[in-house]
Amino acid sequence: AVGDLRAPIGLAVAGDGSIYVAEFGRHRVVRLGRGGELLGAFGGHGAGAVGGPGTIDGPGAFDGPYGVAVAPDGTVVVTDRDASRVLRFSTDGRHLETWGGDASGVFDHPSGIAVARDGTTYVADTVRHRIRSVRRDGTLGATWGREGDGPGEFRYPRGVAVGPDGTVVVADFGNNRVQAFAPDGAFRRMWGRSGSGPGELDWPLGIAVDPDGDVWVADTNNSRVQRFTAAGAFVEAHGSAGEAAGEFRWPDGIAVDAAGSVYVSDTGNGRVQVLRRGRVGLVDAARRWLASLRR
Fold it and tell me: Mean of the pLDDT values across residues 173-185?
């Protein structure tokens, strides 16, 4: 791999500007500072778990961390995909709570995750083709979706994000489209179709909403990211297949900070790329992150 991250997938930016990366290949989440310094890591797998008893079934350990999001109170939620659960942590990685698990039936291989301003967590319950919400107190809230290609139906939903107005947007992976919903799951709009042209999608995985309400999508099999208005109009696309700065191999997770910088997990290249003001590349900070993560 070009970079030193092992299958980075989910990304989230905290209020202080630090970045959380779900490093699927090492079964952990790493936290990076604004200047690129490694601030910490938590999770792990088996005997190497950090913050847990040393088994994938215990609190604080992972069996395939996929999505990551930061709540308004600074806590971090992570979808532990292959254990079919969501784990909640303190800012420094101390395990606080677990939702679901293999035997509970609450989730089935969840992937994307997002937290709204009111503290509601939205989870892409991928194998069951639906979105589930969890209230701030940990109880289950609205659930919507089923397998299909009609409005409000999904085929393996992946990324999920919440806009400034509370709109929930979902990367409907198997249908090659984006769908938008009210916080209670009421359908609002959808856009996209299969293809490689402007505004077309081929296996969209990650999704994020910037401070202006525009929607960014990791158009994975087209090796690019695309930006749309909140109404679904195509704005711009960045990237192509490759290893150079500005090129991607399997872009997956995507996140936007308060200044509008867009972070993309370039999963196949083992790195994170940053888009600032229309330019994609491995900026100096990203290079330092990779250097600090060498093991």
Answer: 98
